[in-house]
Structures are given as C-alpha cells and as structure tokens.
TrEMBL record:
This is Oligopeptidase B. Residues 3-412 form the Peptidase S9A N-terminal domain. Its EC number is 3.4.21.83. PROSITE patterns: PRO_ENDOPEP_SER (PS00708). Keywords: Hydrolase, Protease, Serine protease.
Amino acid sequence: MKPPVAAKRPLVSQHHGVTITDDYAWLRAANWQEVMRAPETLDPAIRAHLDAENAYTAAEMADTEALQAALFKEMRARIKEDDSSVPAPDGPYAYASRYTEGAQHPLIVRTPRDGGPETILIDADAMAKGLAYFDLGGADHSPDHRLIAWSFDDRGSESYTIRIREADTGHDLDDRIEGTTGGSVWAADGRTLFYTVLDDNHRPCKLLRHVVGTPASADVLVYEETDPGFFLGVGQTQSARFVLIETHDHETAEVHLIDAADPTAAPRLVAERKTGEEYDVDHNGDRLYILTNADGAEDFKIVTAPVAAPGRENWIDLVPHQPGTLILGLTLYKDFMVRLERFAGLPRIVIRALASGEEHAIAFDEEAYSLGLGDGYEFDTTNLRFTYSSMTTPARVYDYDMATRTRVLRKEQEVPSGHDPDAYVTRRVFAPAGDGETVPVSLLYRKDTPLDGSAPLLLYGYGAYGITIPASFSTTRLSLVDRGFVYAIAHIRGGKDKGYRWYREGRREKKVNSFKDFVAAGEYLAREGFTARGKIVAWGGSAGGMLMGAVANMAPDLFGGIIAEVPFVDVLNTMLDDTLPLTPPEWPEWGNPIESAADFATIAAYSPYDNVTAQAYPPILAIGGLTDPRVTYWEPAKWVAKLRETKTGDALLLLKTNMDAGHGGASGRFDSLKETAFATAFALKVAGRG
C-alpha cells in the first residue's frame, strides 16, 4: 500500500506579527467536544483519513503479526491472571481488588476484617461486556460501609458517570450523576457525597454536593473555580475529618476545607492562592500539616497551623527546607507522620513520631529502585503499607509497624512464566550534558548482553510536570531485554529526579534542556558501548511524545526508530487554543503564547510539528486515541501528515489511532497488552530483531 496523503487546506493566522500557515488544521474536528461524548459524530472526511492511516499501518506491520502474537503470549504469561491486591482494613471490613482468570477488568470485593465470606461489590468485567471501552473509576465506600459510590467511563474521554450501590445487595439506586471526573468523597453521615464535574471544554470547575436518593438536578453547587487556568479536585484528609477542595495549576495551589461532620457548612479557606506557591494539607488533632514550597523552600518543607486559624501568618516550620532533599508526599496518622522524599536521586520513607519528634528512615540496598506509599483507609493505626521494586526485582508490598520498626512482606509480584533476577543487571549511570549537568540513566540488560556497541537500545523518556519516571519492575520490557536490547530510562530535566531545580531547569523558557538531555543520554550510551548511533529506539508518550518529536528534529541520525504514544507534538497551536481542556492550566508549564511574544517565540522554536524539516527521519510510529481529551487525536495525525510531505528518504512513518479509546489506550488489561506488543514489535522490526 502507498501511504495516505492528507489533503492540504491552509489555515493562516497571525500572532505577535508572525504569520502561521497550518496546512492540516482541518483534521481538528470543529465539534471536538461532541466527539469526546459521541465518537460517531466525527466528520466523515476526518474519519476516512484516520481509517486509511490505520489500514496502512496494519499493512506495513503485517510482517510482524506472528511476532506480535508471540509477544502478547509471553507478556500475558508473565501476568498472574487471578491476581489480587493485599486487603486494606477499614473498621469491620477489609477491601481489595482482584481478577479472575481471563478477566480484563477487576472485581472490587470485601471480607470481614478477620476473615470470612467475600462480598463482590463491583464486577467491572461483567459491566464491560459488549463495550469497546470501559474504565472503572472510583469505588468509594461510605463511612458506615452501607453504600458504594462508583463511577465508569465507556468512551475513553475521561467523563465519568457516578452511581450509588447498596453494598450488601449489589443493587444500584436511582442516583445517576453524569459528566464527572470520576472521584468522590463521602461526608461523615454516609448520605452526602461531594464530586466535581466537567464544563463544556472538559475542565473540572465545579464541586457539587449530592444527597443519596435525590435527583442529580437537585445537587447543590458548593464551590466554583472561575479561572480556566485552574483545575478543581476533591479529596479527604487521612483522618477523614475534612473534605479537601483542591484548586491548582502547575505552580500554584489553594485549598478549602469542609468539616465532614457538617457537610452543608460553607468551605473555609486555608490560605489564598499566591502565584508560584504550592501546598497540600493533611490533619491531626487540632492542627493542619502542610507540605509547601513557601518562603523559597524550593524542595519543599512541612509546616503546621491551627485548624481554627490556618492562614500563612500562623504557619510554623516543622520539617525545615533542606536543599537537595525533595519532599514528595505527606501522610498523617494518629501518632505518626510519614513523608516520602527523594535524596541523591532515590526515594526514601521517613517516619516521625509526633509525640517525641524522633525520626527514622526505612532503608534499601539496590543501586536504583522505586518506592511508593500504599493506600490505606485507617488513621488510628501503627501500620504503614508501602511498595518496593527495582528494574530486576518484582514489586513487593510490605506492612511496616511504625512503632516497632518491623516489616512484614505481604505480597511479592508473581511472574508465572518465571523470572530469574540474577540473569539481569540493573545500573545507574550519569550522562554528561553539554552545559555541565549530568543526566541520571537507569539501565536494565541481561548479563549475557554484549556491551560492545552491537546491542540495540530502547531509550525511554518523559521530562515534564516534575514527574519522575521510577526505576521500577516491568514484565513487558523483558520481552525486549530477552531479545538482546538494553533498556534505558533517561531521567532528564523537566522531572524532579534531582530535586525541584531539575524540574525548573526543564520547563518554560528552559524546555529545550529536556530534549538536549535526552540526546546527550543517547550519545553517552553509544560512546560507552551500551549501543551505537542509529541503534537506539526512542519511546515516549504524551509530554514524552513531545520529547520524541523534538529529538527527531534535533538528532534524527542518533535513532534507529521512534515510538510516540499520544504525542503532544502540536504544542504551539494547542497553547494558542484556549478552548482546549488543558491549555489554560498548562500555560505555567509551557508559557502563554497568546499573551507573551517571548513565550510564543520559545514554543515556536521547539514545537515538533512546526519544526519538521526536509531531512532524513528515522522510522516513526505515532499512536493516538480518538476520544483523548489530553492530547487530541489530531496532533499525531497532523504531525505524520507533515512528516510525510516534508521528509527526505524513505523511512517508515506510521499512524495508529485507537478509534475506541482515549489517552490511556485500551482499557482491558489484555487489550492493553496487545497495544504494548504492537509497539514492541515495531521496535524489534526497525532494530532488525523482529
């Protein structure tokens, strides 16, 4: 088959005296909001183009169908099909999720706390039958354990419907709340529910209060965020004393409190928003515990304030700011405070006894690893649940007694088809960047992999929003490693791998540092013999897809292939369109090219779509989702169309659009594996290992 050729319908616009001509703007559906809710309303001409691209991709990948099937089979064989989470106790019950063999979606279950017959609360697999897409959102039980507020999305557009279910009978009440973000918080009475809804541009902007048994049309507006640059969320303190109304963009936060015992009370402000200042709130006794970057605490500090007077003027430092030690999260229990922090590029858990102030950390030995705090319902407990894994060590779930400082292994990830950690090597190296910085790189490879430049290498990167890509265990990447690949994660600027400064140095006017770091990591790995130039397959998604587009423009000869999942490549046009869901909230991250000529010039200089040039590009696979509200389907579609028109050489360019899903791809765990197998097959194909 010949590759599809998109029609050129120039759209000309001017900004800050600069004329932009966009030949493929027509791929953006004028009714995109409607398409999110009803995909069948997509313009037939656009659908025909996407269908043609999908057919071409299928034809070009036909020679990998047997490989895809083999990859899927081995990836599935590494999954324990009847897996279950460690039950989380709450009062008289313990709650868990589990899968039955062959099921794509989980069961939400509970048992008596000390053991006994299981009650199935939610059977997501049964609900998904006959649907092209189904995602179970929240499943939150009421404080009296009688009701379950659960939500689902059956379009992939992240617009969830909330239902209320009787826990004992499994009967859904008539309550039905449409157009929500999926999460909800119960008040103490077990009859009142708080939730957030999406506006016409798919932004969460209103908090409503629902009383069980009443129609959604009677729900009361509790709080409305009128600034389109801020997103609204709802949460709860670990103590369950307060409902948290959380408003934020990427650099500024504001929190209001509602006493869970008085759900009709007006929200009470903790501290008014202050540009560039973030804070999160938890609670114990008569004080709030606040994680914040106030007063120049770039790597964050912890302060306390009276519940009765929580304003900034009453904040008192509890854990002072320590430059280079980034505090990532905070959880309060009755007698302990737990914080997750990152020091020297690695995470650690620090526990503080509230009565004495004595602290201790939980220690780990591996060179690179991933660490996370587990979810727990209870406040009056000495038990802390956390998860640990490394690139060679499957995930382990521990219960840790904060009083006795003893840990119990509750679960270790099973790999049914077998996994020998001793057959693999995990390392952490540092690649020199051009400006003197060093970029951490996590590596995984088999011990028998030659490090003489002959091995292909998969280089993964993200580098945005301060998100740190953990050096955690993955069963799917073993399919590449077992076929001779070195697997590498470049912890580039834009994440917080080396503290908040690492994030600051990879955003806005310094965004190009992210791209340069990724290229520097690839060049270093080639120089050191882990691979060679032209043998690197780069992989990134979403903002990491922007990274893929940028490095393809900057250093195409470094890469043997690029996989860009839901890639944010049309950065300039998207940031100029303030009707899109994420645009106003994202201006602090990228800059506002509508208001600022400097921001316009910065983004225009790196936006992948706008910087496609007549050069030889490596093979590229771009993957999108029709109902994706985060990175809209037309971004990869426009990018591939422009690459085809502009590039030199005959490198393979493929676009695959999931017509039944959004940002996260297929919803079922096995359907998701098929998508991973497809992308992995592409990597093997372009590396000559297929």
